[in-house]
Amino acid sequence: VMNKAQPITILTEYDITLFQGGNHCRLYEKLGSHLAEVDGVKGVTFAVYAPAASKVSVIGNFNQWRAGSHDLYPRWDNSGVWEGFIPDLTPGTLYKYAIESHTGFKGIKADPYGRLHEHPPMTASVIWEDHHQWNDEEWMTNRHHRNKLGAPISTYEMHLASWRKKEDGTPLTYREMAAELPEYLNEMGFTHVEFMPVMEHPYDPSWGYQITGFFAPTSRFGTPDDFKYLIDRLHHHNIGVILDWVPSHFPTDGHGLGFFDGSHVYEHPDPRKGFHQDWQSLIFNYGRNEVKAFLISNALFWIDEFHADGLRVDAVASMVYLDYSRKEGEWEPNKFGGREYLEAIDFVKSMNETVYRYHPDIITIAEESTDFP
């Protein structure tokens, strides 16, 4: 059938119940693009959350980026999830979502759950399949000793693009870094390395703190497999890997999460809670269960899939206070009349409970510049 992907149910009713309750912590297994076989035909499943959309289609280099040639199907349960299967697509295919809403909004968006995106400044998502075979069983079995309270920890914080550049001024790839970084850290006596955000981001001078691809290591230095290889080599040299994680804000770039389907899906609709004046960026709506599930799934994703040993959670101070960097009248007190942002605090607690439930041997670290207990 032209003009349609094939109908398929990707998320179960239980998935939807968990998602709507803010309790689905592995959404990345279902949402986004995944290689699949349906009735003996190989292809790719797509699922995207776009509750205000009237039409969602997958566009890409396989259909001349033409909206309407591969439409997804809205689920019957009013969950806001759109699903479909497109046969014959293969890894390496570029794609985006073309989204329309009843208000006249038309947007073209990268996949929020995309596992790989084009090298910036290009912004398409890329169908990806992992092939890395992990070789770090010994580290994973014993890392609780390295991460526990009281263990000696000395962390080397670094920005991938700046570390030990090549003679022509270009940064090392993930694989080139894997050949040099572990030995350097051993020699210097560090126990852990903390990577400033490795997630895909459009703007180099943001150092990675303005993320558009939360589920993808940046393609500037190679593929997700290459990044896994780097972590594998670090573990082989007994170096723990802490990833800088940014659930506090995200940029307004057109292909990103902002105004995703013509409505405020990811950012809080009230600019007092949804716009960050210091960074001119959008703030997640922590009280929206589907957003909470997105972020908690993302935290778990890096620990599950990339064997991260810890998360350094960025800008927690800006999350837990309603009046952070705001003047009188620019913020609204909580229901108790206080300045604590209750939904954001609840989110941080849930995130911690979830990642430690599945991985009690990791560490989470708050970048918190006040004395919040």
Word description of this protein:
This protein has 373 residues and is α/β, with parallel strands linked by helices. It is 24% helix and 23% strand. It contains 8 helices and 19 strands. The chain has helices at 13-20, 137-147, 174-188, 224-236, 271-274, 289-306, 316-320, 342-358, and strands at residues 3-4, 32-38, 41-49, 53-60, 70-71, 73-74, 81-87, 94-101, 106-109, 125-126, 155-158, 192-195, 199-200, 213-217, 240-245, 275-276, 281-282, 310-313, 363-366. The strands form 6 sheets. The protein has a 5-stranded parallel sheet with strand order 11-12-15-18-19. A 4-stranded antiparallel sheet has the order 2-3-7-6, with no helix packed on it. Strands 4, 8, 9 and 10 form a 4-stranded antiparallel sheet that branches. The radius of gyration is 21 Å and the shape is globular.
Task: Report how far apart the termini are.
Answer: 58 Å
Instruction: Supply the helix-strand structural class.
Output: alpha/beta
Shape: globular
Rounded mean pLDDT is: 96
> Count of DSSP E strands?
19
Whole-angstrom Rg:
21 Å
Give the fraction of residues assigned to helices.
Answer: 10-25%
Order of helices and strands: EHEEEEEEEEEHEHEEEHEHEEHEHHE
Low-pLDDT runs of 5+ residues are none
Number of helices: 8
Strand content: 15-25%
Can you summarize the main beta sheet? Answer: 5 strands, parallel
User: Can you list the strand order of the major beta sheet?
Assistant: 11-12-15-18-19
